[in-house]
Amino acid sequence: MGTIEAAASTPASPAGVWALLADASKWSQWGAWSKVEIEGGGDQGPGAVRVLDRAPYHLRERVTTWVPGERMGYELIDGMRVTGYKSEVTLEPSADGGTLVRWRSTYDRAGPVTALVLRLAVRDACKRVAKAAAAG
Question: What number of other Cβ atoms are within 10 A of residue 56's Cβ?
Fold first, then answer.
């Protein structure tokens, strides 16, 4: 089993960070994805399937956990050569009014190149959402 962990601090409140995470249609504004949408255009909570595009990847992931302002989890359905991939993003208020963003992913099996891509992507996403939240 592989584990990927990333953390980033931002002066933005948990509500400010959550606003960016909760609206998948805007992920391409702060993230590395060229397009993100909810399959079927429905709700973004538990059970929703997000479709993320960035050449050469076309991923589908299912939302598994949704606690507004605190935590979001998802599992990869398809689009990469990895099995059992799951992630959880948690938002922890800091004493100064900001937020510590933690992104933790696990997977059962992935080749070395896929594992590297996943590690870089998780770290990048964590930094990007913290930076975008700080910019307001």
Answer: 6
Residues 113 and 109: their CA atoms lie apart, in Å, by 12
Query: 109-131: per-residue pLDDT in tens?
Result: 999 999 999 999 999 999 999 99
Please, what is the average pLDDT of the chain?
94
Q: Please, what are the domains in the chain?
A: 2-135 (3.30.530.20)
Q: Which of 37-46, 58-67, 91-100 has the lowest mean pLDDT?
A: 37-46
Segment 8-24, tens digit of pLDDT = 999 999 999 999 999 99
Report CA dihedral (37, 40, 43, 49) to the nearest 10 degrees.
-60
d(CA 50, CA 46): 11
- Residue 64 is encoded by which pair of tokens? 């598994």
d(CA 102, CA 84) in angstroms, rounded, equals 20
Task: Locate the DSSP E strands across the chain.
Answer: 2-10, 35-38, 49-54, 57-67, 71-78, 82-83, 86-93, 99-107, 109-110
Nearest Cα to Cα of residue 92 among 76, 104, 75: 104
| pTM confidence score | 0.91
